Amino acid sequence: MDKTYMTHEFDVVIIGAGGAGLRAAIEATKSDISVAVICKSMLGKAHTVMAEGGAASALSNKDPRDSWMTHFRDTMKGGKYLGDWRMAEIHAKESPDRIRELEQWGAIFDRTPSGLTNQRNFGGHTYPRLAHIGDATGLEIIRTLQERGIHTGMEVFMEYTVRHLFKTEGRISGCFAYNRVDGSLHLFKSKAIVLATGGITRCWSVCSGSWEYSGEGHALAYWVGAELGDMEFVQFHPTGMIWPPSVRGILVTEGVRGEGGMLTNSEGERFMFDYVPEMYRDEFADTEEEAMDWVNSIVADETPTARRPPELLTRDVVAKAINSEREAGRASEHGGAYLNISWRPEDQVKKKLPGMYHQFMELAAVDITKEPMEVGPTAHYVMGGVKVHPETQESTIPGLYAAGEAATGLHGANRLGGNSLSDLITFGRRAGMYAAKSAIEIEEFAEISHEEIEKVVEETLAPLLRKGGENPAKVVEDLRELMQQKVGIIRQGQQLEEALEELEAFREREESASPGGTRVYNPGWHQALEIGAMIDVSKMCALAALAREESRGGHTRLDFPVPDYSHWGKINSVIVKGSDGEMKLSHTRYPPIPDRLKEFLDAEDLHEDEEESNV
Amino acid sequence: MSDDVTFRVFRGEPDESGKPNGKMVDYTVEMDEGMVVLDVIHRIQAEHAPDLSCRWNCKAGKCGSCSAEVNGKPRLMCMTRMDEIMHETPEGQPILVKPMQTFPLTKDLVTDLEWAYQINQTIPPLSGPDEMNWEFDQIEADRVQEFRSCIECMLCVNTCHVMREHQLFGQFAGPRFFVRLANLEMHPMDEEDRIAMIKDDFGIGYCNITRCCTEVCPAGINITDNAIIPLKERVVTEYYDPVAIIAKKLGIRK
Ligand SMILES: Cc1cc2nc3c(=O)[nH]c(=O)nc-3n(C[C@H](O)[C@H](O)[C@H](O)COP(=O)(O)OP(=O)(O)OC[C@H]3O[C@@H](n4cnc5c(N)ncnc54)[C@H](O)[C@@H]3O)c2cc1C
Ligand code: SF4
Ligand code: SF4
Ligand code: FES
After folding, report:
1. Residue B66 covered by a domain
2. Whole-model pTM?
3. Which DSSP helix (H) or strand (E) runs through A163?
4. How many domains does chain A have?
């Protein structure tokens, strides 16, 4: 088989063309350097295109009481104080300008009556904060960045998959990719690399993500020796479609609840009133009347004085509540809950939630303007990722940067809806800027070890040389089922241990998976090559989850059902590949929150009196 | 409900001259309730043909990756329900799945869309005032937001006879990019003028308002009436000589 490869040289290589990657590219090209963007699917089709509800930033267009301080506070609180406060501060302060800038590049968000960018309510955000266009905000953002990006001089390598990152004398020096269309092989030498590869949720069988979310970016960082943090924290979005089976997992935007959607169980009860956690009790309505008051103000476009409905609690809370109702035997017909927006006039539903209307009409034959939807939790977002410097987004490997869902820090134990799209443009920009800065400092492209290149070439072509093995699709399906069963929304020590063991057994299956066919656009081959990353990423999640003996945000242990403030309150997990090649887990903490920021937080939430003396 | 269904799928690659070289292959798989065409394709990959090529991402009609021709009709495979397909297919007949026929073939259901990226590059981007916090009303936004909902599935281009039969790729921007141009021209803050390009480089005169593109648009954009006709009118107003311009291009009218 032909082992030749083409060599390219780019000062900065950006892996990923979602919101984070494209924003990084736009920034990096402002310096006089060469920039390549590599992505697995076609330009404009990355996962960001699927985002629905909106992008959060304290523009204060809709409610003048909003400010960066409140956004900072909401983000920290939603993340159960495990997030990096430095990133939360930067994000809260810079995201408004990043949104405004998008409008100058062509985005057209919905307007307020006075002609400014409108903002929508979302779970965990004190004020209406999400810039949106109907329920297709991701499309707006990716298209805007794409249209801006193509005029900046970046070179796009679409339908290429990066399989390996190279280091030379400790610094990142390039990456290796193959072209999915013709199967050709490519070496990219570069002075800095930005990982903007998105998430990992395809490792679960019920998920809102596409085939791209196999976690290859997280694995690339791990293999090259970078630290990954908080990998136990996976967000299960409370409202995925559950029926018919073939659409299971597809997202139902939180915007439905932001627009007044109500959750009920098989007995017709609005059960969320029973699940308001102590730390949110002051902020949420305790009667249906009060909740209705709030909704009425929203519909009338007035600033609400009532407290918000409990359907707008953070995602971890709502997802677990739906799960508990099911356990208690009060599930909807197909094992979830009912979500009802049909009480609002038909034309309003169609205007505010056009995508949801079509999605249900066409995929489930349900008219949401007339009947309730059926929803249940779906693996949606990974809070964990590459550990980065809060300002520069550089990882623990010099020259390797990460931004967007691939990075960790901003969201702590649970991400607030809308905070991802704003994360992408805020930290994508920073990653691009600092990657460019560091590339400029370097004069020559580093030499890359031939041995290492040859090894990657072998590995890449190996599946095509196998005969008679398993269909890679089957291996992937079984792995996803294992993660769903044993590392899902509710976890237990015993099951996590079993998962760790069973995951190892997948390595053998990976090595024998045989897709057949040629190098030309062969999805079986592509999938065979993803299994290794999926195993490692799944293992990171299970390993970190086993160690965290408490429940917090996106991590829930049946055997340790409550948060443990004495030990885990500010402890973040770290995963790194040891020198022996084994996966190593340790724990660390961010620097203490300074008083100037602490004053914006709710003191009693921090539980500082319960903390064991500093470790 | 769990019946078997037979798909007759195009399998092949272009020959040396670029012409599709392949055959239709039958695959029979089980079908579950609520499946869409893309689910069946995935099942074929999982059970029979791991190397069957097709593009997809969102599986919810949002990314525009999974365009194909099913029973001869251009559609998104992820948004086409099998009940609908079974209903329209004569009893006992296989369901035909082919790649978009207007674009060069890559392999199986995948086509080469390089043209679209190239033409997009030639469109002058939005250019508005420097200060932030742009103000404009929802009514102004509404007009343009319809165009913003385009998912770049290229089904409209695939259907338009100017492309499909006459292959005027170099001279005609195609419905998708008239939508893009209308978006820019009608943007409340835009200050750039693209009318000359729309007439000369993008060949809007070749469009003879058949509305076939509008019929297939999965985003429901009224391409012909809301994008193309207003652009044609702007060209007319700017060049005052509508009859001559259109007459010249009439050669291709069916
Ligand atoms: C249905 C849905 C709705 C959502 N709604 C919202 C919302 O309303 N608000 C919000 O804030 N967030 C939302 N999110 C979350 C948000 O959309 C994502 O977290 C975000 O878009 C991720 O962006 P990104 O730039 O990090 O990565 P992505 O957009 O996922 O892009 C990743 C890129 O990396 C490329 N890539 C990955 N691996 C490789 C490799 N090995 N080689 C080459 N390229 C590679 C991919 O091809 C792709 O181009 C939603 C998510 C989903 C699934
Ligand atoms: S209306 Fe114009 S662009 Fe649309 S299909 Fe007909 S000729 Fe083509
Ligand atoms: S205008 Fe409609 S049919 Fe054409 S590319 Fe856009 S979404 Fe597809
Ligand atoms: S897969 Fe995205 S539109 Fe069909």
Report:
1. yes
2. 0.95
3. strand A160-168
4. 2
